[in-house]
Specification:
Layout (H helix, E strand, L loop, with lengths): L14 H16 L16 H15 L11 H25 L1 H25 L16 H6 L17 H10 L9 H6 L3 H16 L6 E8 L4 E2 L2 E2 L6 E6 L1 H8 L8 E3 L2 H4 L6 E5 L5 E6 L4 E7 L12 H16 L3 H12 L4 H8 L5 E6 L14 E11 L3 E10 L2
Helix pairs in contact: 1-2, 1-3, 1-4, 2-3, 3-4, 3-6, 12-13
Amino acid sequence: MVQRDNRDTATRFDKRDRVAAQIMIGVVRVRQTTPPDLESLSTKLRPEHKEWILELWSAASGQRPGGGSTLTVPERHEALASGMRGALHLADRYALEEPSTGKTMRVELHDALQTLRGDLYAAGSKPASFSGALGFRIGPEILELGRERKLAKTGSPLSDQPAELRELVYLSFPSRGMPKEPEKWFADLTDRQRAAFTGLYNALSAKDLWRFAHTIHDLDNGEPHFWGQEQEGNTVSLKVVGDTGGLNRRLGDPEAQREVALDSPFMAMMHKGQKSYRELTSGPGLHISVGPGKHWDVHIDAHPPVKGQGKESEAELANRFLLHGLQELFPNMPRALLIGLLKKVKVPPHIAKKIGNQVLPAVRFHPATNSPLWQTDNPTLIDSLEIEALEQDGKQMTATVGISRRF
């Protein structure tokens, strides 16, 4: 289906818009097998409204308005993404023009679309004779298409991204905290953020984990500098609200345990209040932290501190552990400490975070002691790393790091 600019050209919200919004909720909820008769309505709908309604009906029923073969699950996602963009835009106008009923209508539409989205993922995960990465099964509808899953591309606009990615963005924005149009939100991402976001979509989608994200909460910038150099590690983290119960069950499934494992107690200390999982790989891998509540976040570690699937020596593992600390763990500590200090002096949390997310000066780390632990080949001996002092002269930030042993 062709992605269009789903903008309502009317300058005034009227009865036609109200009726269209109500029908949209109905076709998504009821999922009738015959298309709605839009021509017999006493209220004449706008052409674009009819188009969105039929797209949502196709996504919900799996049928084509003109008859013929049924839609595959990927095709239903395309119809859903296309129809929901117009529907949510109309509901936003409804909430703005008639707050008393419009806000309720928008919530009902959002919930119905989210439920349909989840049902499509469930339909696409029926047992098949093929398993993808992490042992998660890929739906037969995808195999029937005889093509690979569409990948997100960093340089493409939102309209050219995969339907499942667009669905999540449409369902997330505008929101109270970030009242931007979806296309503007995506276009305003930095190159680093967009690369991380599209990369995470591709990795999570390939493992059938994207479904567990319901709305985007934040894209945390991380800290890309160490000793004044850009780092490949410590990438942007995607924070979402979603189905954490389902995600924990999926990651805890016996089949998945061959490819993913719970974080070690030492590394889990960096994610208090969360259940943290790492992809078992010798190359870049997913690091997923689940909780608290319905929140979870994910980023890709360039140097996962875990033993991968291939045969690795203890020296290779120790080297990756060290690179993870230098390039992905340590550079983020000053930023986290700065945000914590700002909050303690009563700076509003969202202002503290905004300040802390700015690019910090070049950071230099040096040990507080000459402990032999800094040269250890056995990372399990290390209990904790703590910043004991933090100094800044405008150009250089110096962090004094203490280290303690586990035993």
